[in-house]
Amino acid sequence: MNEESLTDKMDTEKDREIIFHLNNPSMQVNGRVQDIDGTGVVVPALINDRTLVPVRALVEALGGTADWYAAERKITISVDGEVLEMWLDSKKAVLNGTTLTMDVAPYIENGRSLLPVRFVSESIGCTVDWEQATKKITIKK
User: Fold this and answer.
1) Is the model's pLDDT at 127 over the cut of 90?
2) What is the CA radius of gyration of the chain?
């Protein structure tokens, strides 16, 4: 199988594995290394014992969309029929119409929205593993 057809196959697969490392500007999507946001500046961060990641990179790697509504300071994530709404600097979230509370609020760093990775991932049907020794976050769908 040539490289192009392998890439096409990975892009159409339903199962996804996304790997982040704290303070690292790269991520892996199904084994392929790529820059998280194209700037090399925004990285996954640990805030109040919760890991926050740049949202768009995660959601698009899962085949979903992330929309920003500046007037409301709201992020809306849609993946496989799940709709999650969150507001910057607020611990309130709404998943498919049900209000939830997060441990830590989303915030903006260098123009990118960072959201709590476990909360977002599990809300949209993913599993999350944390490896303390290597500071690795693995998300599977």
Assistant:
1) yes
2) 15
Note the pLDDT tens digit of each residue in 37-66. 888 888 999 988 899 998 899 999 999 999
Tokens of 20: 């982040």
What is the pLDDT averaged over residues 3-31? 74
Q: Could you give the count of Cα atoms lying within 13 Å of 13 in the half-sphere of its Cβ?
A: 15
Closest by Cα among 133, 140, 104, 127 to 21: 133
DSSP string, 55-87: HHHHHHHTT-EEEEETTTTEEEEEETTEEEEEE
What predicted TM-score, i.e. pTM, was given to this entire model? 0.85
Q: How many CA atoms lie within 13 A of 65 on its CB side?
A: 6
Q: What H or E segment, with its residue span, contains residue 122? A: helix 117-123
Counting beta carbons within 10 angstroms of the beta carbon of residue 139, is it exposed (0 to 12), middle (13 to 18) or buried (19 or more)? buried
pLDDT of residue 4: 44
Domains in the chain, start-ordered, CATH in brackets? 15-140 (3.30.457.10)
